[in-house]
Amino acid sequence: MAKWFPHIYDIAMKPLEKMRFERIRANLVRQAQGKVLEIGFGTGANFHYYQDVERVDAIEPNPAMSKQANKRIQKTHTPIYTYQAKAEELPFEDNRFDTIVATLVFCTIPDPEKALQEIRRTCKVGAKILLFEHVKMDQKMMGKTQEALTPVWRKMCDGCHLNRDTLKLVKQSGLEVQKVTSYYGGLFLTIECCNSL
């Protein structure tokens, strides 16, 4: 992992947030209800979007990233509890959560299939799973470019895979995909799912 990455993350994201990301995040996160689990909260960019939720348990494996989230936690009225943990090994009991939120994080999870199993285990039947991710594009040339850039990109950007087909992984996990919205020619997707065990 590049040690400098957590320190420049918010700076790098600022132009993207100004474009449309802020609205996309807000619209997605505001759908959360009840007890919420946020996967990979990073620097806490989603925290101020939570509205009518009981509490948010948020995990982040990178201590340098989570350290920067403390200021955002102090500015929110939502009860937020953070944990240094991996998505593949969630420290929560079965059937706990009403909503799972993950934004721009599945690209970095080393074993996304295991993470999706853990999400299904820890959320209730009927729970919402709300994802905002960049994915491998369907356009042949762009997809090949993503494949070629991924090895270097992973080293620079905290393990991020430009070529990950997160939608396919979600469909294979058994979650019921209810709505997919494409942005920027299919480079980014919001994926709204339900745990319909």
Q: Provide the low-confidence segments as ranges.
A: 4-9
CATH architecture: 3-Layer(aba) Sandwich
| Strand arrangement, major sheet | 3-2-1-4-5-7-6
How many angstroms does the end-to-end distance come to? 36 Å
Number of helices: 6
Instruction: Estimate the strand proportion.
Output: 25-35%
CATH class reads: Alpha Beta
Quickly count the domains: 1
Protein name: Methyltransferase type 11
GO molecular function: methyltransferase activity
InterPro entries: Methyltransf_11 (IPR013216), SAM-dependent_MTases_sf (IPR029063), Thiol_S-MT (IPR052356)
Keywords: Methyltransferase, Transferase
Structure overview:
The protein has 197 residues and is an alpha/beta fold. It has one domain (5-194): Vaccinia Virus protein VP39 (Rossmann fold, 3-Layer(aba) Sandwich), CATH 3.40.50.150. Helix content is 37%, strand content 26%. The protein contains six helices and seven strands; from the N terminus they run αββααββαβααββ. A seven-stranded mixed sheet has the order 3-2-1-4-5-7-6, with helices on both faces. Strand 6 (176-183) and strand 7 form a beta hairpin. The radius of gyration is 16 Å and the shape is globular. It starts with a helix and ends with a strand.
List keywords for this structure.
197 residues; Rossmann fold; 6 helices
Outline:
GO terms for molecular function: methyltransferase activity. This protein is an alpha/beta fold and 197 residues long.
List the helices and strands and how they pair.
Layout (H helix, E strand, L loop, with lengths): L4 H25 L4 E6 L13 E7 L3 H5 L2 H6 L4 E4 L13 E7 L8 H11 E12 L5 H17 L9 H8 L2 E8 L4 E7 L3
Parallel strand pairs: 1-2, 1-4, 2-3, 4-5
Antiparallel strand pairs: 5-7, 6-7
Protein name: Methyltransferase type 11
InterPro entries: Methyltransf_11, SAM-dependent_MTases_sf, Thiol_S-MT
GO molecular function, one term: methyltransferase activity
